[in-house]
Amino acid sequence: MVSGLNVLLGITGGIAAYKTTFLVRLLIKAGANVKVILTESASSFVSPLTLATLSKNPVLSSFINEDNESVDWNNHVELGLWADIMLIAPATANTLSKMANGSCDNLLLAAYLSAKCPVFFAPAMDLDMYQHPSSRASFEKLQSFGNLMIPATSGELASGLHGEGRMAEPEDILHFIKQHLGKNLPLSGKRVMITAGPTFEAIDPVRFIGNHSTGLMGYELAKQSARLGASVILISGPSALKLEHDSIDLVNVVSADEMYEAAHRSYFISDIVICAAAVADYRPEKVAEQKIKKTDDDLVIKLVKNKDILLSLGQQKKDQFLVGFALETENELKNAKGKLKKKNLDAIVLNSLNDSGAGFGKPTNKITFIDKNSNIKAFKLKSKAAVAADIISEIISRINA
Ligand code: CTP
Questions:
Q1: Nearest-atom index, ligand 1, CA of 339
Q2: What is the phi/psi pair of residue 172, to 5°?
Q3: pLDDT digits (tens, 9 = 90+) for 304-323
Q4: 65-79: buried (b, 16+ CB within 10 Å) or exposed (e) per residue?
Q5: Which of 115, 140, 180, 392 is most buried when burial is the number of CB atoms within 10 A of its CB?
Q6: pTM value?
Q7: Which residues of the chain have pLDDT under 70?
């Protein structure tokens, strides 16, 4: 949700400014792009060099960049337009009052007046200042403009007094922002379950039957779902891909049987289910307890059929929107439509091995999306991230129809 978000962070002069170093780190770690505007008094509390290093951007303080040989000014209008959100933290009584009354005597205030994006402010001040009717009036006026207040918390204040006025902790500020952003996203409140990657079927303690699936398609689907506000359960067979996301619960499995169990555990709490895994259709009937020795000239391993996870989910379907994948080499449309019907799906994503650039182990994919009403939409060759965006948007348009 925060990944790729442009955050314009305004820091004003209060002791809580030191905490913004942690805030910037959290935002950067979550994948945001951060630009910092520091008021003159804030630079007494926190070093521009620290913030520039952490945010990976120069810290802006005044309208003119005096360091540069050429005349260079910090364009507040561009900054306001660049920002997806503006966050003022800590927000002092002085700055809040100026914001509420349209004052514009520094870069931060000019950028605030230029910003068209959601503006969050996290007040920080001493107990009596926070209670003062003048501060309360600023809070109310700013909220009446649509700005979002991240309330101060209670605790020991820099003055030694106890009470309300401490700036919210950086983790809580990030949480507040995420919650707000999530509210307006198309998949907020929805749970998406995705199967991804190959399955490995053990032959003996050191060998297995597997396939070349990397899991990339499923992982991109998980990321796109999370980006659009869903909470995601990603059930993944063995994959080298790394994924860390607050809204994605990664469940690692190895065999088709384990994937079957994990998928059925989460199925009934899911709204959208996408089976993108390349599940092994067969497994060795017996797993040798010891490593198999090469004694004979040939070795016969009897395989038995694995349970079809998607088929079973289709048979037990209630309100879930269920999507499968089909990788075909001939009679693609006919076979994909047949699988959609047989497995009781709402839609199926067809990859044809006849398309170069599509399928296993490739960074790109070329798909055709087919729904249960036989609406067919063919897409061009794209990166798997872009394909994931297409698939999720096709699903959203159908669950909202
Ligand atoms: N699938 C599954 N469990 C299995 C096999 C497949 O969940 N044991 C799912 C895949 O994740 C995919 C879909 O079923 O979404 C289609 O798989 P595919 O292998 O193309 O089709 P099959 O039904 O196995 O038919 P065939 O191999 O004969 O083409």
A1: 23
A2: -70, -35
A3: 999 999 999 999 999 999 99
A4: eeeeeeeeebebeeb
A5: 392
A6: 0.75
A7: 66-71
